[in-house]
């Protein structure tokens, strides 16, 4: 066994909101013992000096999309309707090499900002072949990060997913809408990828993501979940993200999106909801009863104008909570510290009663233990015996930490990733002195510029066609969002809503 003894560091303790000095003994990537300074270590154990460093468990990004890293910061004002209208054009025509690069650059950013595991909703079949998926899995392996990679699958294009949207388009634009995919072909491709998956499942596993219930026939959604269960992996779907979707679900199913999924029998401990903004009390209870998780993505929810999730309601109902950044196409960066901070702030914006806000330890727990449970990686999320040694080391001689106060609050509200000194995954350093080991940043920057030019040429016509449809999608979805819904998740009062966007669109 290869032993590693980490000495002289301070370890964040959620329960006592303190950071006592602790030594950590690691054997073959597993945490064997955590104890006070002077912890006994086997002869020959390698010494890792953590003097002047604060240790916390590697953060878990509960929801992201490696597919969008190259588009970071490319859009100004942009909402979910526009994102979905553009998504097929934006994810198509990418070579396997560009898919790898997208995924690798996202992983790199996460690692350098203290995140060691991600739930990545990646290119869905048929946009990625089994070979492409394996290559993207290799990107996480090469970067040295853990991930669930769940291809986003669907059989219903966005314009058919929202009742009435297709019919609202001018006749001359209707041919621009993509065709529906064949349900059996999509499920067959997903099964083939699951059967072929060659990567070590302790590091990179394949999940399944029926991307949005409205975009999936009942046969596809149920079939996807059956496949996930047959292969013992996890499922994630975007549920209750934007109001127009919540309203469309009532119109389509005669019930909420979560009630519809419950009726299909797909909710369970292996199921997670991304976003969960437009959930009512009954939805939350159904998710809690099933042991399901919600990835709260506050940065994305604000950036796309989706609304403010009732996270206190989710926790009170007993739903397992994770924190996510969302993809760089919808929230621009992959900074989990920023996502945690936004999570604290939006909870406070929702209600004047502090009892309904989230605490520092609650958010940090969601971003570590909650994410571990959500991703199905049971051996991560905490620094304690039996867990894997995924450890972030923050520099206490950085302004963020002068002085050390309540470290749980300080990680959530002060740390921004700039004090990340080292990052360890499975007992091995992947980031040392703020630099990712094994990456040539200059070469990557040149490669990213080249990929951007390549994609502009390849995707130009498809993006131009999508742009023609955009205004119609935007106006139609805004019209749906102006309709009444049992819960309010915008930061507007009803009088502003009535006067502000009682759109004449629908
Ligand atoms: Zn998403």
From TrEMBL:
It is an enzyme of class 3 (hydrolase). Keywords: Hydrolase. GO terms for molecular function: guanine deaminase activity. Residues 57-430 form the Amidohydrolase-related domain. InterPro entries: Amidohydro-rel, Metal-dep_hydrolase_composite, Metal_Hydrolase, MTA/SAH_deaminase. SUPFAM superfamilies: Composite domain of metallo-dependent hydrolases (SSF51338), Metallo-dependent hydrolases (SSF51556). The keyword Hydrolase applies. PANTHER family: AMIDOHYDROLASE-RELATED DOMAIN-CONTAINING PROTEIN (PTHR43794:SF11), AMINOHYDROLASE SSNA-RELATED (PTHR43794). This is Guanine deaminase. It comes from Prosthecomicrobium pneumaticum. The lineage of its organism: Bacteria, Pseudomonadati, Pseudomonadota, Alphaproteobacteria, Hyphomicrobiales.
């Amino acid at each position: 066994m290869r032993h590693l003894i980490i000495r002289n560091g301070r370890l964040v303790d959620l329960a006592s909101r303190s950071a006592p000095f602790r030594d950590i003994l690691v054997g073959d990537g597993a945490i064997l013992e955590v104890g006070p300074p002077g912890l006994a270590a086997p002869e020959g154990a390698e010494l890792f000096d953590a003097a002047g460093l604060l240790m916390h468990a590697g953060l878990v990004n509960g929801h992201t999309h490696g597919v969008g890293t190259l588009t970071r910061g490319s859009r100004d004002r942009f909402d979910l309707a526009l994102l979905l209208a553009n998504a097929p054009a934006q994810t198509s025509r990418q070579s396997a090499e560009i898919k790898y690069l997208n995924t690798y650059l996202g992983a790199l950013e996460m690692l350098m900002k203290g995140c060691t595991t991600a739930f990545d909703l990646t290119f869905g079949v048929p946009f990625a072949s089994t070979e492409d998926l394996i290559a993207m899995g290799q990107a996480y392996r090469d970067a040295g990060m853990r991930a669930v990679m769940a291809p986003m699958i669907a059989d219903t294009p966005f314009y058919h997913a929202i009742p009435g949207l297709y019919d609202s388009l001018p006749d001359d634009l209707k041919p621009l809408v993509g065709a529906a995919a064949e349900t059996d072909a999509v499920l067959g491709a997903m099964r083939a990828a699951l059967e072929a998956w060659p990567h070590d499942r302790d590091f990179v596993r394949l999940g399944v993501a029926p991307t949005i219930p409205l975009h999936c026939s009942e046969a596809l959604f149920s079939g996807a979940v059956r496949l996930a269960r047959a292969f013992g992996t996890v499922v994630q779907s975007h549920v209750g993200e934007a109001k127009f979707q919540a309203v469309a679900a009532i119109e389509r199913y005669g019930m909420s999106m979560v009630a519809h999924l419950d009726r299909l029998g797909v909710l369970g401990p292996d199921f997670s909801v991304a976003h969960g903004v437009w959930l009512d009390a009954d939805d939350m209870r159904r998710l809690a009863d099933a042991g399901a998780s919600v990835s709260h993505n506050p940065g994305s929810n604000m950036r796309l104008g989706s609304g403010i999730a009732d996270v206190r309601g989710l926790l009170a109902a007993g739903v397992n909570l994770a924190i996510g950044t969302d993809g760089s196409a919808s929230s621009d960066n992959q900074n989990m510290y920023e996502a945690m901070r936004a999570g604290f702030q939006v909870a406070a914006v929702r209600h004047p009663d502090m009892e309904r806000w989230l605490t520092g330890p609650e958010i940090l727990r969601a971003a570590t233990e909650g994410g571990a449970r959500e991703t199905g990686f049971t051996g991560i999320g905490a620094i304690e015996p039996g867990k894997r040694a995924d450890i972030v080391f923050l520099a206490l001689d950085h302004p963020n930490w002068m002085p050390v106060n309540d470290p749980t609050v300080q990680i959530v509200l002060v740390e921004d990733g700039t004090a990340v000194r080292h990052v360890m995954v499975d007992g091995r350093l992947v980031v040392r002195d703020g630099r990712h080991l094994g990456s040539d940043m200059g070469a990557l920057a040149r490669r990213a510029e080249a990929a951007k030019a390549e994609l502009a040429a390849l995707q130009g016509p498809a993006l131009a066609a999508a742009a023609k449809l955009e205004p119609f999608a935007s106006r139609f979805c805004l019209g749906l969002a102006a309709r009444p819904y049992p819960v309010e998740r915008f930061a507007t009062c009803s009088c502003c809503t009535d006067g502000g966007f009682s759109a004449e669109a629908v």
